[in-house]
Amino acid sequence: MQNLETRYTHSPLDIRHYSTEELRREFLVEKVFVPGEISLTYTHNDRMIFGGVTPTEKPLEIVLSDALGVDYFLERREMGVINVGGPGKIIIDGITDAMGKQDGYYIGKETRHVIFESEDAAAPAKFYISSVPAHHKYSNVKISINDIKPVETGEGKTMNKRKIFQYIHPNVCESCQLQMGYTILEEGSGWNTMPCHTHERRMEAYVYFDMESPNKVFHMMGKPDETKHLVVDNEQAVISPSWSIHSGVGTSNYSFIWAMCGENITYTDMDMVPMDELK
């Protein structure tokens, strides 16, 4: 089964008077990994499609043609994949690769078939995908977390000690506009980014996971001088428009996958927000 939900774009003025329920409805994706299903969100922020593919007894393939006005899903798109669940495999135009936990893949445009499978239906793979429009075909590349030298940043005293694994990044593989990575906070740390930033030239989507109940993440969003927040549970995702900060703090440490697209693929292209300007 495949579900595709569409979310539209918003001006910062739109959300000024939103209730908690309205804010959650527009920016929070509550169900990402549904056993035996494909659960996707199509945001009109740079036309990113993201979500979870969770095969159990049967293989799953994303089929989107009529919705996108194309003959097949990746005809004019590229896609990133990271497995955050049990062992599985991915079959790309007939070529099979094993996908353990934390394995990733960059899949270029014009790839016709991408099939996802789990080794054990009782402990299924959880493939998180992000797809954006692409203008050029780049080579498909498997990416293992063991082959990535993480960026280690933050400090224990500011509760933001973390490792950033850049999967789809110019240092690892070529892409048109997609960037994607995996951040793991150390035990005792809760902030993922503070001081925060915006990047007017790119939007972003987060999925938070590796949290045991009843822990939560408080995801901060909005213009720097008019912030709001979303309370996020394990394996839930957030849409972050280009004008919004995207920072969060958890009641325990956690992990998250970030995916970005927009005008460039310069990871450091961000506009830092001084702490005394936050409101």
From TrEMBL:
The gene is kduI. It is an enzyme of class 5 (isomerase). Catalyzes the isomerization of 5-dehydro-4-deoxy-D-glucuronate to 3-deoxy-D-glycero-2,5-hexodiulosonate. This is 4-deoxy-L-threo-5-hexosulose-uronate ketol-isomerase. GO terms for biological process: D-galacturonate catabolic process; D-glucuronate catabolic process; pectin catabolic process. InterPro entries: KduI (IPR007045), KduI/IolB_isomerase (IPR021120), KduI_N (IPR027449), RmlC-like_jellyroll (IPR014710), RmlC_Cupin_sf (IPR011051). Pathway: Glycan metabolism; pectin degradation; 2-dehydro-3-deoxy-D-gluconate from pectin: step 4/5. It comes from Trichococcus collinsii. Belongs to the KduI family. Keywords: Isomerase, Metal-binding, Zinc. Its EC number is 5.3.1.17. Pfam families: KduI (PF04962). It catalyses: 5-dehydro-4-deoxy-D-glucuronate = 3-deoxy-D-glycero-2,5-hexodiulosonate. Binds 1 zinc ion per subunit. GO terms for molecular function: 4-deoxy-L-threo-5-hexosulose-uronate ketol-isomerase activity; zinc ion binding. Zn(2+) binds at residues 197, 199, 204, 246. Its cofactor is Zn(2+).
